[in-house]
Amino acid sequence: MADATVSNATIRPEEAEHFGKLAADWWNPAGSSAMLHKLNPVRLGFIREAVDMHWGGDVETAKPLAGKRALDVGCGAGLLCEPLARLGAEVTGVDAAEENIAAATSHAAGAGLPIDYRHGELGTLGLGHFDLVTSMEVVEHVEDKQAFIAQLAAHLAPDGLMVLSTPNRTLKSRTLLVGAAEALGAVPKGTHHWEDFVTPEEFEALLEVAGMAMGEPKGIAFSVGKGLHLSDDLSLNYIVTARKRD
User: Fold this and answer.
1) How many domains does the chain contain in total?
2) Higher per-residue pLDDT: 204 or 35
3) Structure pTM?
4) Per the annotation, does 214 bind a ligand?
5) Which of 104, 175, 202, 219 could form a Cys-Cys staple with 233, CB 3.0–4.6 A?
6) 169 is in an annotated binding site
7) In a domain, 93, yes or no
8) Residues 6+ apart with CB under 8 A from 187
9) CATH number of the domain residue 163 falls in
10) Is 95 part of any known ligand binding site?
11) pLDDT tens-digit series, residues 160-215
């Protein structure tokens, strides 16, 4: 399931409308975003390890992002922004759906987290550079993927870290993430369009054009025994780091 939308220039308007309608239910772990609640801890485990490796910080500290700026693009109602803030970052979240930003702002206020949420097109907001840029389950909803990746790269500090995730375009993902997931109600109907999924090879090429070097992707897989977990199996979904090339 997607973490929502990015901008009217890079996202189809119907996608913004689709995810905006889910805003009120976003923080309900048993609601329409239940899959995201299950996915979030897996993402955070990957991000924490990537942050520790990138900056060589204290792996025992509770706030490895203290003193750093983090940007989450396509933030939805803030499921990733809030943990990033708790890890010590000064967080900004951007989304194309006004309803999502309203829900995110309200929830963060209730949690006492000073997150800066912005509605609109990333490239027009004048946000500056960030040490960490994340965008989870978003690129597959973008019309102009190269323009979107370029926007992300433009907001990354020279020594910064980018973390991205997306479904892979495979027969398995078509069967399970689109067909079965929607049929069983695991994600709302119309959430995924399989033809827009991005393979790791395509993602690497998009990042290369934007002046980025992609790290080794890690799969996000599912099993009955483990649930959602990091894996070497990239066939359903994967998460990856990227850095600016020297």
Assistant:
1) 1
2) 204
3) 0.89
4) no
5) 219
6) no
7) yes
8) 1, 32, 35, 177, 181
9) 3.40.50.150
10) yes
11) 999 999 999 999 887 877 654 554 455 666 556 778 889 999 999 999 999 999 99
